[in-house]
Amino acid sequence: MNREILVEAEGLKKTFDGLLAVDGINFKIFKGESFGFLGPNGAGKTTTMKMINGVSPPTAGNLTIAGMDVCGNGREIKSMIGVAPQEDNLDPDFTVFQNLTVYARYFNIPKEAAKKRAEQLLRFVQLEEKRDVIITYLSAGMKRRLIIARALLNEPQILILDEPTTGLDPQARHLIWNKIRSLQKEGVTVILTTHYMDEAAQLCDRIIIMDHGKIIEEGKPMDLVRKHAGEEVLELVYSEEVMKLLKQTFRNARMEVVGDKIHVFTSHPRGAFSKMLKAASFRGAVIRDANLEDVFLKLTGRRLRE
Questions:
Q1: 5-225 falls under which CATH superfamily?
Q2: What is the per-residue pLDDT across 192-222, written as a single tens digit (0 to 9) for each?
Q3: pLDDT at 219
């Protein structure tokens, strides 16, 4: 089945004062999918998102949205896109309802249509009871939901989400996840960045992992987990004796020492670690499912980035 390409980049580059932030990347985003850009701070993912949104023009390469070049069709492309930035840029002097109706003017939405759409979106993000509340009195989770509602005012084909649930409690995170899933079911293409690997695994059909301006891996989240981390991970307290036994037992396994723990990754089928633990007792041994965070740390390292 041929899928419609909505966003396509070929040899995409971006430099800032001689610094190469995005280094000749290629990718395709299909209509109706949820697509994630992952990477450490400074990897180039936010810069890439800004180029898609038309905020920052490419230095070189080609970038098209719905077949239109971003460099010559800015107005048309922006009308297709809704953006929910990471920072809170709601107007503190307005009510929840006014933040939506005033923003609608940027898209030349008629006054009555804007009011109707604002009411619908407040119901969608479950903020109708806060309709006349000043922004100052909203919780962080409520503000995030309102920012997403605002991004949907122009009924976009593409929704760009920059760290959509940073700093939120689990209840607020899951509510936003559910709203994003429902939008995708309605045919909205979702493009997001996140530092939460469980969020990417939950929401994204495909992901790109970037580092130093380049794409270092791409694919479906679970496919990447199986490729780079296997099915299960064994974690146990470090000692020389334990390490020696592990190397003898799992000769082809990848092992990492993290603090006082050993992490063992193997391509053996599920259950291989359980057999070993039954044969010998180890202090603090835990078997868990491999996950996207294991992949991310393997590919980008554990060193902190500023």
A1: P-loop containing nucleotide triphosphate hydrolases (3.40.50.300)
A2: 999 999 999 999 999 999 999 999 999 999 9
A3: 97
Question: In whole angstroms, what is the distance from residue 255 CA to residue 251 CA?
Answer: 10
Instruction: Give the residue extent of every domain in the chain.
Output: 5-225, 230-290
Q: For 236-240, what is the mean pLDDT?
A: 87
Entry pTM: 0.90
Distance between CA atoms of residues 54 and 48, nearest Å: 10
